[in-house]
Amino acid sequence: GWGIPVGMTAIWAASVASKMKSKCWWGYNLTTYFWILEGPRMAVIMLNFLFLLNIIRVLIVKLRQSHTSEVEKARKAVRAALVLLPLLGITNIVNMMEAPLDRQVWEFALWSYSTHFLTSFQGLFVAVL
To answer: Which residues are listed as membrane-spanning (predicted)?
Structure first.
């Protein structure tokens, strides 16, 4: 399970080390080499999002066969989706958005706080659910 991430990180570190002129790697995420790490991560998150959509589709089909009200069916589908969001890492989609550095201060604050909150408490969400 750890071989592929370690390999990608080693390739990224070697690439950055060979191209960065200083010992400080500040701004590494602004280089094209960052996509060695970010590309596969985005692909996995998008694949998980497709799994989530398929699970919701199957759940809705199954709920339509039961004899409960439409509101209760929708409530169950939404509850299932909310449970699966942190499990599949969908909360990391906020991390993939570019930081709104050229926008209003409140927009950057909203992005920053939501990113840090979702990332920090993802384990808690999984444990509670």
So the answer is: 42-60, 80-97, 109-128
**pTM passes above 0.85:** no
Answer yes or no: are the C-beta atoms of 33 and 15 closer than 8 Å: yes
Helix (H) or strand (E) holding 43, with range, is: helix 35-65
Largest distance between two CA atoms of the chain? 67
Per cent of the chain over pLDDT 90 is 9
Whole-number Å distance between alpha carbons of 78 and 17: 46
- Phi/psi for 121 (5° steps) reads -100, 10
Q: How many residues does the chain have?
A: 129
Hey, what's the torsion of the CAs at 71, 74, 80, 81, to 10 degrees? Answer: -140
Query: What are the tens digits of pLDDT across the range 30-70?
Result: 788 888 988 898 888 888 888 888 888 888 788 777 777 87
